[in-house]
Specification:
The structure holds two protein chains of two kinds. Chain A is an all-alpha fold. Chain A is built from 19 helices and no strands. Chain A has two domains: 4-31 and 63-233; 260-426, Fumarate Reductase Iron-sulfur Protein, Chain B, domain 2. Chain B is globular, with a radius of gyration of 18 Å. The chains are: A mainly alpha, B alpha/beta.
């Protein structure tokens, strides 16, 4: 019978981690639906970016209040996880506070966890107030209605509950230590939870043990549930921010990729010796599709971007189109990309591993032409993203599809392109007049 | 000072067996747009005064392809790029200067992948280098103490990280450089980028250039300095819309310097 809790714990842990592994497999499969792209270059710069932007949170602090609060929650999340290690060992081997022999170090660790837990609790409450009481504009945009709003709040509630459970667990433990109850050896410092003493006043030892054990179990079960919630939530960024900043764009922001498929065709056209008939036998001469109309036309890095987005809305709040009331919202572009990718993933699962055409695509069903044409390509969204997401590249790929596959540009732009084609300038001026300014007054 | 601009073409120099220090890429706006032509001339006056050996492509220059690329027409962009690269490579061009951040960005970043690798600088970078080398001198003169705010062109600033060269030049004019609340990395677009210059804006509650002009006017400037022909148009329209054209001028950095030097 003494082994029962350990066996139970092992089952819970295996179930939690197993389910998470299954979701990670799904995540990988979906991201790999994207096109191959070579990002193996410049590893040292990429590690530097990851260290600075993800680990060092350098872009979070551009907005000092949100940045400072976020750093508290981020550090809390990482450090308090050391405690989770102890909880797992205790759970599996039936020990209690297995790290207690560390003595003063242990006191210091538990003491700092408690202070961090309190700070996290406060930060999370402020976050909740910003979303629900102050109602910051960027959390109130149309794309945040419904599930995204609930998701944001749910994450905050889970974090509050986890921190409270952690403090209750320690508070009850401290009381039991004071009462010299067997198993509850004197260990740890409790700078925060000892203030909970009044709540435990007059409770019997068995009640205290019940409270301590319940909080302990709920805390670890809560963490495992939270881990598995990630895949269904915008909160995946806590894991994906690292690969995403690693694979983020290294070139200057203004450098847009030159499409290789187009280069092939242009070279063919410009080469007077090229034999157009010979070329058609080569596979390269038939490019699959110019630009992107669905998620599978995007690169896997762009799809990783979509899963990494935590919907903070800094991109949209900096976007000139969004600021002036246009439909375009870079955040929505990322959310739509993820939603469509999930839809495609589920379709593949339901059809035994192959995608069955559902008559839908990212362009049109999720992202409208009007949104795409409102972009000024100013890179404000890219600059604002704290985790190196590039919404602009998706907008550009979809414009390419609209123009090169569907000839669906606004008529003004068709005129502009016609002018470039005919006389080498976006306006209807003759190329032979290019130097007239020298002699004009 | 005579008013005749000396603007040699690459073809002329090539025929004479000469190679200029730098190619001045004028760009479509600089060649055809009435407002932008003034910027082109101001820049040439400075080059002439500093005795910079330069040349233009003239009728051999064609659109860099930037608006086509940003509009999604990669095909047309690459056709333009390859044509221009052929011309520039034939002339063995090493260094290019341009007063248009869109041409600057495209030539600097997107031409190398298509076979055209040059040292490309924006005219504000070129001018601040001339200043550093003592090839031009600047005294504030009529701009001394004037409140000037600089509007960062997206394709110069965020896109390529050039924030200081234009500011350096404004400071050298002894002017009072005042920053907008959104400047440098956080600079707000004028609304013309991404081929928006050539189309009507989408439905919204305000035009982007009005929003940006309001931010500029908050600094109580006497001059809004620009470094891009498109930004110049957008900000000029914004100032007119706010009926401030009598008290606030929109001028390119090259125009400020040419005026300060009485060119």
């Amino acid at each position: 019978m003494a082994y029962l809790p350990s066996i139970l714990f092992a089952c819970v842990l295996i179930a939690g981690l197993g389910f998470f592994a299954k979701n990670v497999t799904r995540l990988r499969r979906n991201i790999n639906l994207g096109k191959a792209v070579d990002v193996s270059d410049n590893k040292s710069q990429r590690f530097k970016n990851m260290a600075k932007i993800a680990l060092g949170q350098t872009k979070m602090v551009v907005r000092p209040i949100a940045g400072a609060l976020h750093i508290i929650v981020y550090i809390g999340f990482i450090i308090i996880n050391i405690e989770v290690l102890e909880i797992i060992i205790d759970g599996l081997f039936g020990t209690h506070r297995v790290f207690a022999p560390l003595g003063v170090v242990y006191d210091f660790l538990i003491g700092s966890f408690e202070i961090l837990a309190l700070l996290v609790l406060i930060a999370v409450i402020v976050f909740w107030i910003r979303r629900n009481v102050i109602r910051l504009k960027r959390f109130m945009k149309p794309e945040m209605q419904g599930w995204p709003k609930q998701d944001g709040n749910l994450i905050l509630y889970i974090e509050m509950v986890l921190m409270v459970l952690f403090l209750i667990m320690n508070g009850a433990d401290y009381q039991l230590q004071q009462l010299d109850v067997a198993q509850y050896t004197q260990a740890g410092a409790f700078p925060v939870s000892h203030y909970l003493a009044p709540f435990f006043d007059g409770l019997s030892t068995s009640s205290l043990i019940l409270i301590e054990r319940s909080a302990w179990w709920l805390h670890i079960i809560g963490i495992l549930c939270f881990l598995n919630y990630l895949y269904y939530s915008k909160h995946l960024h806590i894991l994906l921010a690292f690969p995403n900043t690693f694979y983020g764009k290294l070139a200057p922001k203004g450098q847009f990729e030159n499409l290789d498929a187009v280069t092939q065709e242009v070279k063919l056209m410009m080469d007077p010796d090229a034999d157009p008939y010979a070329a058609s036998t080569e596979e390269e001469a038939v490019p699959e599709k110019f630009g992107a109309s669905d998620v599978t036309d995007l690169s896997w890095v762009q799809l990783l971007n979509a899963y990494t987005c935590t919907e903070c809305g800094r991109c949209s709040s900096e976007c000139p189109a969004n600021q002036t009331g246009k439909l375009l919202s870079p955040r929505k572009v990322m959310m739509d990309t993820r939603d469509r990718l999930e839809e495609v993933g589920k379709n593949i699962e339901a059809n035994n591993g192959t995608f069955v055409d559902d008559g839908k695509q990212l362009l049109g069903n999720y992202i409208s032409h009007e949104e795409l044409w409102a972009c000024t390509s100013c890179n404000a969204c890219v600059q604002a993203c704290p985790v190196s997401i590039d919404p602009l590249s998706i907008i550009m790929n979809m414009r390419q599809y609209l123009v090169m596959e569907e000839s669906a540009a606004p008529s003004d732009l068709n005129n502009m392109m016609g002018n470039i084609e005919n006389n080498g300038a976006p306006w209807p001026f003759n190329q032979m007049d290019r130097l007239n300014w020298v002699t004009e007054n | 000072m005579d008013n005749i601009l000396k603007v040699p073409t690459m073809a002329e120099l090539f025929a004479a067996g000469k190679q200029p220090e730098v190619l001045f890429w004028v760009g479509c706006a600089g060649s055809f747009d009435d407002r932008a032509k003034k910027i082109t001339k101001a820049f040439v006056k400075i080059l002439n005064k500093a005795n910079v050996s330069f040349a233009v492509l003239g009728t051999e220059e064609s659109c860099s392809g930037d608006p086509a690329k940003r509009a999604g027409n990669e095909f047309l962009f690459q056709m333009q790029a390859v044509t221009n690269i052929e011309v520039m490579n034939a002339y063995e061009i090493k260094k290019v200067v341009t007063a248009c951040p869109h041409c600057f960005n495209t030539l600097k970043n997107e031409y190398p992948g298509l076979g055209g690798t040059y040292e490309v600088v924006h005219h504000t970078q070129f001018l601040s280098q001339l200043l550093e080398e003592g090839r031009i001198s600047l005294e504030g003169g009529q701009f001394k103490g004037k409140r000037i705010t600089f509007h960062d062109p997206c394709y110069l600033g965020r896109a390529n990280g050039v924030y200081e060269a234009p500011r350096e030049l404004i400071r050298k004019l002894d002017a009072e450089l005042v920053e907008m609340k959104n400047c440098k990395k956080k600079g707000l677009c004028c609304g013309a980028g991404g081929a928006q210059m050539f189309k009507e804006p989408e439905k919204g509650n305000k035009d982007i250039n009005i929003e940006r002009t309001e931010q500029a006017l908050e600094t109580q400037p006497e001059i809004i300095a620009a470094g891009c022909p498109f930004c110049n148009t957008m900000m000029t329209d914004g100032v007119k819309n706010k009926e401030k054209e009598a008290s606030v001028a929109v001028l390119d950095i090259a125009e400020l310097i040419a005026t300060a030097e009485d060119l």
